[in-house]
């Protein structure tokens, strides 16, 4: 579902951590298509969890709470996707860190040595950005 508590949380985190909105939008657009591939597995996992008799009292109690139903945990695809994401989180986190380090060491280093970057660095706009970043860019 497009509107859920998870969506609101992600939007808040985008602003809190100063993530580039354009990159987040492109990423969300890309993963919306990837979700179609994962949806059958997520549905099966979510349905298996939601149909467990031992968890029924917990789900009933969660559904009767004020805010928790906004997560739409009762949807089999949402439940399955949540479980899959929790299982894959450590691997994606570590892989992303490695990718970003390699990206910075190779692509960014080459970009900073290029003539285009040196020409951009000589402009007034870049100098204003650099001054702003030195004053307010650090936490």
Distance between the termini: 34 Å
Beta strands, count: 0
Report the uncertain regions.
Answer: none
User: With helices defined by DSSP (H or I, 4 residues minimum), what is the helix count?
Assistant: 6
Q: Spell out the helices and strands N to C.
A: HHHHHH
The major beta sheet can be summarized as: none
Helix content: over 70%
Q: What is the averaged pLDDT score?
A: 89
Structural commentary:
The protein is an all-alpha fold and 139 residues long. It has six helices and no strands. The protein has helices at residues 5-16, 21-50, 56-63, 76-113, 115-121, 124-136. Helix 2 packs antiparallel against helix 4. The chain is elongated and about 65 Å long.
Q: What's the gist of this structure?
A:
The protein has helices spanning 5-16, 21-50, 56-63, 76-113, 115-121, 124-136. It is mainly alpha-helical. The chain is elongated.
């Amino acid at each position: 579902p497009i509107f859920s508590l998870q969506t609101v949380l992600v939007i808040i985190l985008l602003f809190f951590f100063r993530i580039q909105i354009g990159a987040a939008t492109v990423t969300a657009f890309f993963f919306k298509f990837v979700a179609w591939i994962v949806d059958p597995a997520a549905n099966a996992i979510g349905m298996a969890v939601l149909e467990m008799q031992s968890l029924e009292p917990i789900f009933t109690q969660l559904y009767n709470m004020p805010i928790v139903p906004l997560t739409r945990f009762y949807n089999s695809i949402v439940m399955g996707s949540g479980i899959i994401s929790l299982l894959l989180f450590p691997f994606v986190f570590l892989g992303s860190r490695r990718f970003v380090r390699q990206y910075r060491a190779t692509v960014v280093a080459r970009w900073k040595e290029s003539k285009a970057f040196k020409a951009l660095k000589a402009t007034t706009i870049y100098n204003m950005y650099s001054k702003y970043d030195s004053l307010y860019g650090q936490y």
